[in-house]
Each structure stands twice: as C-alpha cells, then as structure tokens.
Amino acid sequence: MRFRVEDLDQYYGSAQVLRHVGFEIAPGECLAVLGRNGAGKSTLLKCIMGLLAPSAGRILLDETDATGWSPNRRSRAGLAYVPQGREIFAELTVGENIEAAARAHGTYGTAATDETVSLFPVLREMWKRSGGALSGGQQQQLAIARALVTQPRLLILDEPTEGIQPNIVALIGEVLRMLKGRLSILLVEQYLDFAIDTADAFVILSRGSIVETGRAEAMSREHLTRFIAV
Ligand SMILES: Nc1ncnc2c1ncn2[C@@H]1O[C@H](COP(=O)(O)OP(=O)(O)OP(=O)(O)O)[C@@H](O)[C@H]1O
C-alpha cells in the first residue's frame, strides 16, 4: 500500500498538537516516527486509525481519501494498529485473541494465520492461557500477531519495544525486517537503535511539527540523537 498523510492538524481543546504533518510510506517500506515524549506521535497514530478526527488534513490509502472512514473500515482496508499498552483481551486466551481478530477479517483457519502465529513460538506454548496472565513481552508478541493475522497492508506500531526485554525486542525486530517488502510499516519508537535497525526512512516530530525527514542511509545515529535527546 502507498500510504500518505497530508497537512494533518489536530487540537486538544485550544492546544494544537499536530501542525501540517505530512509524509508518505512507499509499499513495503518501514517509516519510523521519532520524537520526544509529548511530541504528538500517539495522537498522529490515532488520527490515522480514525480514533480521533483530525481538525484538518487528509489520509490517503493508495490515493483513496480515507479521512472520514471509521476505524473499522480502515481496518478492513488493510490498516492494523498495535497501540501503546497493547490492549489485548485480558479475559480471553491467547488462542481466542488470535481467533477473534482472524474471524473478523475472514482469515481464520488459513495457512497464513498459522504461519503468523509461528513467528512467535511462545504463543503456541501459551495458547490456552488468558491474555492477562502473560508477561509484558508475551502480550506484545500477541498484540503484533493479532494485528498480523488480519493480513494488513500497513502495520502501525506504537512503541513496540517499550518495557520489553532485549531478547524479545530482537525477535520483534527480526519479524519486522522479514515482513518488509510484503507490507508497509509505520513505527513510532523511542528506542533509537531499534528504529535504525528497522526503518527505511525517518520522520522526526517536535511539538507537533515535522522538523526533519529523510532516508535511513542519509541519517547518522548522531544526527538522529540530536533531535530526540532530552
Ligand atoms: N486526551 C488528551 N487531552 C488533552 N491533551 C492530550 C491528550 N492526549 C495527549 N495530550 C497532549 O498532547 C500532546 C501530544 O501527546 P501524544 O501522546 O500524542 O505524544 P507522544 O509523542 O505520543 O508522547 P509519548 O511518547 O509520551 O506517548 C502532549 O502534550 C499531551 O500531553
């Protein structure tokens, strides 16, 4: 999917939290959005998913204007969102979490669903455990798998490494790099090394505005650090 955001503005009351935000993600590429706490990253993702209506601007999926679409319609069109805090169903088992997402998208029981679950071996081990009984890292793997079984064309991740132990961060990184090419990824991340290992391009948000943008190969670690160091 070619995904584009144009001139997005968003306010909370009279406070403007997004200002003329615009960027594009090419099919099969990963764009990382970096920025300090409060820069507007989560607000941007909520506007993209239709959980917040932007005050101005457009969201385009393969040149189709999706700005007024419901979250459900966006999801059916191929957007999948893994929010910060993961929001899995704590009362349902791992298997039921996966099944609910896959059934809603008509992918339940397909080989692709089995393949997705196999990316995260711990999910099979924990299949009958309730989501709420999993560790943070296991819940993050479940949240990503649940998004992937919908067979999205754009996977949107809000700080997937936050509070996660290094070996699971490494596994998530491997999975994302493997998926690139097949789908596009929008990654909001504060962990710079993870973003550098994963992204093809960067956008840096500061106080709701894009202050820097570029291809990964043109962005040194030192350069990126300057924008996000406290
Ligand atoms: N529901 C809300 N009502 C009012 N202000 C809000 C609300 N949610 C966020 N804000 C404010 O909007 C600004 C952007 O918040 P947002 O959560 O989008 O930033 P962020 O870059 O995702 O930060 P973090 O990394 O801390 O999640 C911040 O100043 C925040 O305090």
UniProtKB/TrEMBL annotation:
Question: Could you tell me which residue ranges the ABC transporter domain spans?
Answer: 3-230
- Pfam families per the record? ABC_tran
- GO MF annotations in UniProt: ATP binding; ATP hydrolysis activity; branched-chain amino acid transmembrane transporter activity
Which UniProt keyword terms apply here?
A: Amino-acid transport, ATP-binding, Nucleotide-binding, Transport
Q: Which domain of life is it from?
A: Bacteria
Q: Mind telling me which SMART domains this protein's record contains?
A: AAA
The record's annotation in InterPro entries points to: AAA+_ATPase (IPR003593), ABC_transporter-like_ATP-bd (IPR003439), ABC_transptr_urea_ATP-bd_UrtE (IPR017780), BCAA_Transport_ATP-bd_LivF (IPR052156), P-loop_NTPase (IPR027417)
Single Gene Ontology BP annotation: L-amino acid transport
PROSITE patterns in alphabetical order: ABC_TRANSPORTER_2 (PS50893)
Q: Which NCBIfam families match?
A: urea_trans_UrtE
Q: Which family does it belong to?
A: Belongs to the ABC transporter superfamily.
PANTHER family, A to Z:
HIGH-AFFINITY BRANCHED-CHAIN AMINO ACID TRANSPORT ATP-BINDING PROTEIN, HIGH-AFFINITY BRANCHED-CHAIN AMINO ACID TRANSPORT ATP-BINDING PROTEIN LIVF
Listed name of the protein? Urea transport system ATP-binding protein
Q: Which organism was this protein described from?
A: Ancylobacter tetraedralis
